[in-house]
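Internal ticket - ligand job 324, adenosine-3'-5'-diphosphate:
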Amino acid sequence: KLGHQENDHVDLDELISALPREKGFGSLTLILYRNFWCPSKVFPAVHSFCRHFMARDSEIILACKPKSGTTWLKALAFSALRRDVFPPSTASHPLMSSNPHELVPFFEYTVYGQAGELLDLGSFSTPRLLATHIPHDSLPESVRQSGCRVIYICRNPLDTIVSFWHFAGQVWPKVWSSGQSPKEEYFDYCCRGIEGFGPFWDHILGYWKASLEGPNRVLFLKYEDLKEDTAGNLKRIAEFMGVPFSEEEEGDGVIEEIVKLCSLSSLKELEVNKTGKRAISFIDNNTYFRKGEIGDWVNHLTPAMAEKLESIMEEKLSPFGLKF
Ligand code: A3P
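stdout (structure tokens):
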């Protein structure tokens, strides 16, 4: 059984009370678990995932920190992987009626969360396509030791913070408006690394190093590169998943069809993404689609904030050759 594990709750309270915790932004409580700050609400699911998940070698896992382009990557990977069954040009394509988060469920929100009771992962076609926000070195042993493949996407932390601000304002309007100056407060938490699934530098570096050590096991993508050359990166994604586009498909424009199907402008206008709810928990589907621009942070961060975050990125990421 992959959903809730009955025996987990027995020692869960004890475990939680023994772990370091911090008050995060708003009313969030963060628990330091397996070296990352885990939001307390998903802690039981994260714990079950880490304890019980047995990865198959064929598994394909999409990984990212929130607001880095998860929704887009899910749409692209799903469309490329399942194109034999669901050609991208068909009106009945699953993306027309389902939010990408329904098609590629998260371990910690869905599979091992409450909705996991309704999911039968055993019935998913092989290879299974699943997702997580958990950092690389904190993934279940079976994921790291098996032959399963991981596709990671990250994004300039300046834009990720701004994207999260907007998301939080929609999803938790009360929490967001209760702080004295919520944006500054959240920014400060991020700079100190105390944010859900953070610190962001450890998150990015973990997958970066794993991709250098095992390029066939971890594909490392940047949101910015995906925007600049969506078709080229979609080809890389398909190849990595073991389903490269044939010359005939390229000639028939299949790549362009997928790019268009998964574009922000297309997905945003679909009824399921305009009015649908609860692809994950209580969240409205429309909150996953906003501007999708590179560098929107200039409209929201003060020069002093940008300078502070850039110096953290310089110190933590640049030594490893990572720049945004
Ligand atoms: P902005 O808030 O900067 O617009 P996530 O999917 O990880 O939650 O990230 C959300 C961010 O990705 C949002 O960024 C959102 O607009 C953008 N996004 C969602 N779908 C996209 C798509 N199909 N193409 C490009 N960007 C997309």
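Auto-summary: Residues 157-171 form the longest helix (15 residues). Strands lie at 21-23, 29-33, 36-39, 60-64, 129-132, 149-154, 218-222.
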